[in-house]
Amino acid sequence: MRVSFDPQAGPPGAFYPVLTSLVVPRPIAWVGTLAPDGVANVAPHSFFTVAGVVPPIVQFTSVGRKDSLANIEATGEFTISVAPEWLFEQINASATDFPHDVDEFAAVGITAEASERVAAPRVAESPAAFECRLEDIKAFGQTYVVFGRVLLAVVSEEALGPDGLATIEGLRPLARLGRNEWSTIGELREITRIGYHEWPGHFSGARTD
Fold first, then answer.
1. Which domains can be identified in the chain, with CATH numbers?
2. If 30 and its partner were Cys, which of 38, 81, 87, 148 is the partner (CB 3.0–4.6 Å)?
3. pTM to 2 decimals?
């Protein structure tokens, strides 16, 4: 027996908690921007993913028109810092609807670190960040999907493994769930993908070639 939820059945926005309780876990883009008047802004956005590889494109969604979106439209650039579990309270606090003239880095007790390729600041305490140039914004009703071309990625040495890539233990990224729930990295599993030529005997142990 299943329960059905029709997005058209309720008032606008009623389907939002259904979506966010089902599409889990969601990585968090901790977006740093700089307003034209020089006020720094940082805010978490949990609709975030990679959108392209060559060129490298990341995307996040602004639900409604917020300072992050307005600043990106005005300046054409932003940063995305990894949201690590040891900054859980600061990440949550940065979602507060501060007035536009409030420096949110200072307000929540984190450090605005100068970027190398863009004017928008990064979160100094975060283990990794992307510096991005605005590529495009697509509007769907009252939601805005922001696409950014990655100009530079920076990672703290402590978060890098022997292969030169970031480790999950070094990043310890938070993820957003439904309601007011968040998650941390739990049990890790590893599995190697197989090629088609290996498929016939993969489960049975018998090979046909």
1. 16-201 (2.30.110.10)
2. 81
3. 0.91
